[in-house]
Design a protein that fits this description.
Number of helices: 17
Number of domains: 3
Number of strands: 19
Distance between the termini: 42 Å
Largest sheet: 8 strands, antiparallel
Shape: globular
Bound molecules: flavin-adenine dinucleotide, 2-acetamido-2-deoxy-beta-D-glucopyranose
Length: 519
């Protein structure tokens, strides 16, 4: 069994009502929305800006038939709003768009595949959206076969498919629908990270449009500190037009998955066992995955699904998982697929429910990074999840993920060498709430529920949250590191490259300053 199926999702969409509700954020501990009014877009934007853009760039307004597709996001709640979207297709287009926005003192916000769900994004109101998705076709394998140039708007699935045809692979997001650069800038978890490291660890260099529109190269020789900062806190510093990115020969095309499904009463057994297997010295090709979701065929309470995901043949995996079979799961399945089929076979394909961006959905994602399973906290989290998912039909396709990526190659990279601050954590716990937009009562309920699950799952450990899963009410140190030197260094680099805080809308490193809407 996999993630909630389309059949369940479809039953939700039937009751969808396109009511428009104001979505002002009401969390007590969330920084207040800064209410500087955005100046209107000059009416001569087409005359003034278009001639500076490449012929294939588009300036799209809300009245355009292209608008809904251009503006829709994976999560529609607390989303940014635009008065125009510029669909760029070259690096120069990005630079000209930034200069234009600056000249008219209009905030700008660059996005790629639209999956970022950080709740502070609603602070971006009526500015200029810079859509990078037309850069998405741009990928080119270097003749050395060791790296590829990847465009700033590239989608995970397109990178996987392009490279696969050439006998290559590289770290990308697990879900085919997400951007490549977005995850990369925050670290970038991926199926092969135990073997080759985070997405950020593959970057040989970036081409970056800075806050003032200037274009620079960023690597370990040029703009070195910026290179450090952009691998972990990258959303704060510039717009990546392309990245020079390591790729690898496919040595083992096969991936195997064993899925063990348990009833809720087995939670303690499963995670006590799982903790013993989390020694960090195991096989870097072996990942431990967990999902909780409603599966009435097995239990009226959410089921606990425990999975081994392995880069190798099923027969090999079965040798590694003998003692898991001894736990006597309530249901069991297994499969063996080629790498491009791995995500779809787990329910994470580009067109599948968990990935979909159709403009109708509110989603609330959180991330809690921990070193091991705290069984008592998991039980609390599970009970909080079960209580609401079982009683509120609107939320029935919500699920919780317990991501146990392998970490060997991630931890082999020196901790101080990039801004990514969570190399020590081995697990990413992620409640994901799905519901239809248009009902403020439900929105509030989802927020309360999400916070309840976050607090339960965090337990007593120092809070840490993967920046690309962060909600926005976590301490800034939870995202960027508790060692004081980390934030000091990030803020120093910020001052140098973005003194006015133009890039302050996605998980800002300066949540306290109120410069250019920089929280
Ligand atoms: C279904 C789903 C699956 C996911 N799977 C994974 C996963 O496997 N691994 C993982 O690590 N994370 C994963 N994530 C989290 C993911 O890293 C973030 O959602 C990320 O922001 C998605 O990038 P995007 O281009 O789709 O989103 P967008 O909303 O377009 O981008 C998010 C932010 O990234 C920045 N950004 C994007 N592109 C650029 C660029 N070229 N230059 C500068 N800034 C840029 C912008 O600040 C933007 O606000 C997943 C999220 C979802 C919803
Ligand atoms: C919608 O936008 C995406 C990029 O975000 C693009 O790939 C797709 O072709 C567009 N679809 C339509 C119908 O215009
Ligand atoms: C919103 O959701 C609540 C809770 O399920 C429900 O009672 C209410 O009728 C819904 N309101 C609308 C307008 O659909």
């Amino acid at each position: 069994m996999r993630l909630p199926s389309l059949a369940v999702a479809a039953s939700l969409l039937v009751s969808f009502t396109p009511a428009i509700e104001a979505c002002t954020f009401q969390h007590d501990d969330f920084p207040t929305v800064i209410s500087a009014r955005t100046p209107p877009i000059p009416s001569d934007i087409l005359d003034k800006l278009s001639p500076k853009l490449s012929p294939s760039a588009k300036i799209i307004f809300p009245s355009s038939p292209l608008w809904s597709n251009a503006s829709q996001r994976w999560n529609e709640l607390s989303r940014p709003t635009y008065s125009a979207i510029i669909e760029v297709s070259t690096e120069r287009d990005i630079s000209e768009s930034v200069k234009y926005a600056n000249k008219h003192n209009i905030p700008f916000f660059a996005f790629s595949q639209g999956h970022g769900s950080y709740y502070g994004l609603e602070r971006f109101q009526d500015g200029i959206g810079i859509s990078l998705s037309s850069l998405s076709r741009k990928i080119e394998l270097d003749s050395s076969g060791k790296w590829a140039t990847i465009g700033g708007g590239m989608r995970s699935k397109d990178v996987i498919d392009y490279l696969w045809k050439r006998g290559k692979q590289t770290p990308t997001g697990g879900c085919g629908c997400v951007g490549v650069i977005g995850p990369m800038l925050g670290g970038g978890h991926n199926w092969i990270q135990g073997q080759v490291g985070l997405m950020a660890d593959q970057v040989l260099g970036f081409r970056v449009v800075l806050a003032n529109g200037e274009v620079v190269s960023v690597d370990d020789k040029t703009n070195k500190d910026l290179f450090w900062a952009m691998r972990g806190a990258g959303h704060n510093f510039g717009i990546v037009s392309e990245a020079k990115y390591k790729v690898y020969d496919v040595k083992e095309p096969k991936w195997s998955v064993e899925t063990f499904t348990f009833r809720s009463s087995r939670l303690e057994d499963v995670y006590t066992y799982a903790n013993k297997k989390l020694n960090g010295k195991g096989d870097p090709r072996l990942l431990m995955w967990g999902t909780w979701f409603l599966n009435p065929a097995i239990d009226e309470k959410p089921v606990i699904q425990f999975q081994w995901i392995y880069n190798g043949p099923l027969a090999e995996l079965k040798k590694l998982s003998k003692d898991t079979h001894a736990l006597k799961a309530d249901a069991y399945t297994s499969m063996e697929v080629d790498y491009p089929e791995l995500s779809p076979s787990l329910g994470y394909g580009a067109e599948q429910y968990a990935c979909q961006t159709d403009g109708r959905g509110n989603r609330l994602l959180r991330g809690i990074d921990v070193d091991q399973y705290d069984v008592k906290s998991l039980r609390k989290w599970y009970d909080a999840f079960a209580a609401t998912v079982m009683t509120e039909p609107t939320f029935q396709t919500s699920f919780c993920i317990l991501e146990g990526y392998s970490t060997q190659a991630v931890q082999a990279v020196p901790d101080k060498s990039t801004a990514y601050a969570l190399r020590g954590e081995r697990l990413l716990l992620a409640p994901a709430i799905f519901w239809q937009k248009g009902n403020a009562t439900l929105d509030e309920k989802a927020r309360k529920w999400s916070k309840e699950m976050y607090l339960a799952a965090s337990g007593s450990a120092k809070k840490k949250s993967y920046v690309n899963y962060a909600h926005g009410d976590e301490p800034v140190e939870a995202l960027y590191g508790y060692e004081p030197w980390r934030l000091e260094k990030l803020r120093k680099v910020k001052k140098q490259y973005d003194p006015q805080g133009k890039f302050g809308f996605f998980n800002p490193i300066n949540p306290a300053t109120q410069g250019h809407r920089d929280m």
